[in-house]
Design goal:
about 20% strand; about 35% helix; 8 strands; single chain; 8 helices
């Protein structure tokens, strides 16, 4: 199942079978008035939160019992959204995405906001999670400092450490090679971490607000299936073009590996 479809998220989610999805990665509008080619991010607060609850009520039953959900949001609405989700799911983490915004400009009447909030929730206590897929290698200096005999052969030293709940990953600037024509594109590094940790290989990832197609990109690169819904026709074209490029890149890399293996290089 690899699907990229132009459709309203509520209609798309409703069309799916219950207990068919391994992982949901949701980056919905934040309710901050961004221009996504429509008024989806311009709802009054009460209407916005009611809409959030509506699509989440539809989405949660689509998860398998081993499934989980990552949801991007802002500190302005994360308390209400997380309280709602905690009534229906198990909360595993509140992840802070430090966008590594340069120390310049910003508000002079409060502290400048430089992070996004990500909620990590599971449908049941049987949720899938593979920490070894996302461990971060220790640098050589750290390994050398742990060279005493009591550390030799320790798995954690060899395979790396568990990512913490603050993820310092730079936002995508306009000149970034990964950048597509989308105002709130998320970095591939973040989405890949979610997929590797929380979806088994061959599993299905649902992205109800596919935007620039980063989830689709990450799924293709990492051998997961995907269902991507996006209401904006222009963004759907971006997603399909991006998916085509990544498939061609992956196939060329596989061909190269095959040639190299056959030649014994």
């Amino acid at each position: 199942m690899d699907v990229i479809k132009q459709i309203d998220a509520l209609d798309g989610i409703a069309s799916l079978r219950d207990c068919s999805i391994d992982l949901i990665i949701a980056d919905p509008p934040y309710g901050l008035g961004k221009d996504y080619g429509n008024d989806s991010d311009k709802k009054p607060a009460d209407e916005f939160l009611a809409w959030m609850e509506a699509w989440l009520r539809l989405a949660i039953p689509k998860l398998k019992d081993t499934g989980s959900l990552y949801i991007f949001t802002t500190w302005r609405y994360s308390p209400e959204i997380f309280v709602f989700l905690k009534k229906h799911m198990f909360m595993l983490n509140e992840i802070v995405w430090d966008r590594k915004v340069p120390s310049m400009g910003g508000s002079t009447r409060k502290f400048s906001s430089v992070h996004d909030t990500i909620g990590f929730f599971a449908k049941t206590q049987k949720y899938f999670f593979d920490i070894d897929e996302v461990r971060i290698p220790y640098d050589e200096e750290t390994k050398k400092a742990r060279s005493r005999s009591i550390f030799v052969g320790k798995k954690w030293l060899e395979v790396g450490y568990n990512p913490k709940d603050v993820w310092s990953v730079s936002r995508l600037h306009r000149i970034h090679g990964e950048r597509e024509d989308h105002p709130t594109q998320k970095p591939l590094e973040i989405i890949e971490r979610m997929i590797k940790a929380s979806c088994p290989k061959g599993g299905i990832v649902l992205d109800p607000f596919a935007g620039s197609g980063t989830t689709v990109d990450a799924c293709i690169r990492n051998d997961r299936r995907y269902v991507a819904f996006e209401i904006n026709e222009a963004y759907v074209s971006i997603i399909k073009n991006r998916a085509g490029r990544i498939r061609e890149l992956k196939e060329s890399m596989l061909d190269f590996e095959g040639i190299r293996s056959h030649s014994g290089v």
